[in-house]
Amino acid sequence: MSESPLLSIRDLAVQYRTKRGTVDAVRGVSFDVEAGKVTAVVGESGSGKTTVAQSVIGLLASNGRIAGGSITLNERRLGSTELVGLRERRWQDLRGRCIGLIPQDPGNSLNPVQPIGKSISESLRIHGSSSRGEVRDRVHALLEQVGIDDPIRRAKQYPHEFSGGMRQRVLIAAAIANDPELIIADEPTSALDVTVQRTVLDLIDQLREETGTGVLFITHDLAVAADRADSVVVMRSGEVQEAGPSARVLAQPESEYTRQLMDDAPSFGRLIARETLAPLVERAQRVETAGSPLAGRAQRVEIEERRASSSGAPLVDVRELRQEFGRGADAFVAVDGVSFTVARGTTHALVGESGSGKTTTGRAIAGFSQPTSGGVRVGDAEGGAVEVTELRGRALREFRRTTQMVYQNPYGSLDPRLSVGQALAEPLKNFRIGARREQSDRVAHALELVALPPDFAHRQPRELSGGQRQRVAIARALIVEPELVVLDEAVSALDVTVQAQILRLLAQLQEELGLTYVFISHDLAVVRQISDTVSVLQRGRQVEHGVTEEVFSNAQHPYTQRLIEAIPGASLTSGHWVI
């Protein structure tokens, strides 16, 4: 008789009480997590995957309840335990000791006024490590285990003194402090750069292999699941669409929804293994033949050649840009001698890890910061060029009509006190464009451009999904009819299907309106999909620059090569770029 799985979920149903009545968030979910294996639960926001994870660790929101089914933990030390209906006192004994949690956001998951050593030691003290010296030694050992150097000094530091990747390592250290047999990793790398993401995932894999810990991995990224999971559970609207071994689910998906997720994932749209994913190759080729606005290497190369042959001056010309913060010997150089041009009607991407200077460069182009030296010229013979670094007062204000910026966080970029219509009309009022009736017409047209119905003008931001909010942010940028749009990680916070919708929208708007984009991203799969040219930044310096297809196909700099190697989904590709 086979050994029981570490975690067994059967017919799980979860409900939430809301002002509008009871909402069935999860219905009939069943799957297992084996010891020493990774089970990935994938799907869009609202699919129920985090609710399942919260049910497993007993941390449902106060208005949530398990309405049916069972969750059984078969732990070596305690035997079989039914988690549904467990009393809180029993939960306190299980959490941290038997089940560890790695939360999603490393920026908000640590107490900002508490040294990280104390944050890690809390679980140890709760579960019986009484000796102060014993706890201190264990904390130092854990920090060393997760790859943080000088653990004695680091344990005394605060979260703001750590990078995002280091904070995520601290959270992993806290999760494994008591050697739990099950770890729940809820989107543990979604906020991290691709190379840091790879390091953190390698660490989780290493710990799993060394200790035999089972991992319940919650993610919306099918490429990450492909690289790391032994089995995959695909969820949509609270139900399981399909489940099984990763190789089977990804090579021969039975659900139309799974196929859609894979089509929308940038890594799968560009990186496909010929031998193992032949059905996907055929489908991608059909999409290319059908003229998808974002798929089709031949179409992209043709566009690049056509635009490169244009004799006109570039719309954007960045020359030896340098940005220092601070003064004298303590000055920090954020951007150091960056130069590139962007042709009208094309997309130029700025890629690199956090701290590489991408956003600083983008803000200088948009006129939101004054560089220490160098130049930024925007405009060409058609519309007149301006030196952005020399603009002040009214001239700078007028420049912002031609250059707009879309920010990363769709939840923080809209004023919660304003309706969608008011938010869209605000730049029109600021620039004194049109009377009230004309402004109303422009608002309706802007919503139409981003495929939102007119009645959205009366909605509040809290009533919109993340993808809808980002569409509104794009509409607000376009409503003053700019020539250039700087997009700062504008799709990184979105689920893969919503991300794909926004990318298609951007491509469509570029073709229809002749827009020029500067696209800032740490996601090279997305960059390859949408950009014509690219600059790779490392620690403020431009280490590689050129036509996107050439840079990706024949990267010269070791840093660029390392970024490309870290793109999730590579385990399925054998290194072949297919489309």
Note the main sheet.
6 strands, mixed
The total count of strands amounts to 20
Q: Give the percentage of residues in beta strands.
A: 15-25%
Radius of gyration: 25 Å
Shape: globular
Strand order of the largest sheet: 6-7-8-3-9-10
Terminal CA distance reads: 47 Å
Query: Oligomer, anyone?
Result: single chain
Mind sketching the topology for me?
Blueprint: E1 7-18, E2 21-33, E3 38-42, H1 49-57, E4 64-75, E5 79-82, H2 88-94, E6 99-102, H3 116-126, H4 132-145, H5 151-154, H6 164-175, E7 182-186, H7 194-211, E8 214-219, H8 222-228, E9 231-236, E10 239-245, H9 246-251, H10 256-264, H11 266-270, H12 278-289, H13 297-308, E11 316-325, E12 332-342, E13 347-351, H14 358-365, E14 373-378, E15 386-387, H15 393-402, E16 403-406, H16 420-430, H17 436-449, H18 466-478, E17 484-488, H19 496-513, E18 516-521, H20 524-530, E19 533-538, E20 541-547, H21 548-553, H22 558-565
Parallel strand pairs: 3-8, 3-9, 6-7, 7-8, 13-18, 13-19, 16-17, 17-18
Antiparallel strand pairs: 1-2, 1-4, 4-5, 9-10, 11-12, 11-14, 14-15, 19-20
Helix pairs in contact: 3-4, 3-6, 4-6, 6-7, 16-17, 16-18, 17-18, 18-19
Describe the protein's architecture and organization.
The protein is of the alpha/beta class and 579 residues long. The chain is 38% helix and 23% strand. Helix 16 (420-430) packs parallel to helix 18 and helix 18 packs parallel to helix 19 (496-513). The longest helix is centred in the middle third of the chain and has 18 residues, at 194-211. The relative contact order is 0.11. The model is unreliable at 269-311 and 573-579 (pLDDT under 50).
